Amino acid sequence: AQSVTQPDIHITVSEGASLELRCNYSYGATPYLFWYVQSPGQGLQLLLKYFSGDTLVQGIKGFEAEFKRSQSSFNLRKPSVHWSDAAEYFCAVGLTFTGGGNKLTFGTGTQLKVEL
Amino acid sequence: DAGVTQSPTHLIKTRGQQVTLRCSPKSGHDTVSWYQQALGQGPQFIFQYYEEEERQRGNFPDRFSGHQFPNYSSELNVNALLLGDSALYLCASSLRTGYEQYFGPGTRLTVT
After folding, report:
1. Which of A43, A92, A108 lies at the smallest CB-CB distance from B90?
2. Chain A, nearest residue to B32 by Cα
3. How far is B6 from chain A (nearest CA, A)?
4. Best mutation site among A4, A23, A60, A102 for testing chain B: the one with the most B CBs within 10 Å?
5. Cα-based angle A104, A1, A33 (whole degrees, multiple of 5)
6. Beta bridge partners of A42
7. CA dihedral in degrees (A82, A85, A86, A88; nearest 10)?
8. pLDDT tens digits, chain B, 112 residues: what are they?
9. Hey, how many other C-beta atoms are within 10 angstroms of the C-beta on B44?
């Protein structure tokens, strides 16, 4: 069965500093990978996705992520963090079903705090 | 372009009661998935509906059931509520042939 591990429960960075959130997955085939962000009391917003091709993918809000098959990782990065980036970040792997449809398996999330 | 909408926003129920949550998918989407997000956890897949049928189900008991209507909107029903059912319930919509799921704001259910 597929699984996602986000090793860091909490991360604190200073505004303007760079950010890297770690994500490792376990999946038997080529994964579909996603990063979502969740602000307090809100639903999930899709930041970026990887399906195939270029292993460095760009997303919204200046985020990027790199897929490394050899390390089973899909880490999220941002060169310069803004105070508004404080939120919870979830990595997810997508499983597609025969005949159509899919489900997402999420990690437990990383809570990002930004110090001014 | 309206995104995924859910109602109600918040709900308080008593143990043993039944609850119905509602979801309208993003325009153009035909598939609806439901997830349960307990406090401090990532969302857990409950089930997915398309063509008005439950097509896939996660590891949830039969107390959790759903329905999809011809206009693709969906309901999640939970019977015999337990304290452990307290969570944020998220609806996500997608195309059956697509891989991206778009989430609504969720319904916060509190069971007392």
Report:
1. A43
2. A101
3. 10
4. A102
5. 35
6. none
7. -160
8. 679 999 999 999 999 999 999 999 999 999 999 999 999 899 999 999 999 999 889 999 999 999 999 999 999 999 999 999 999 999 999 988 778 999 999 999 999 9
9. 19
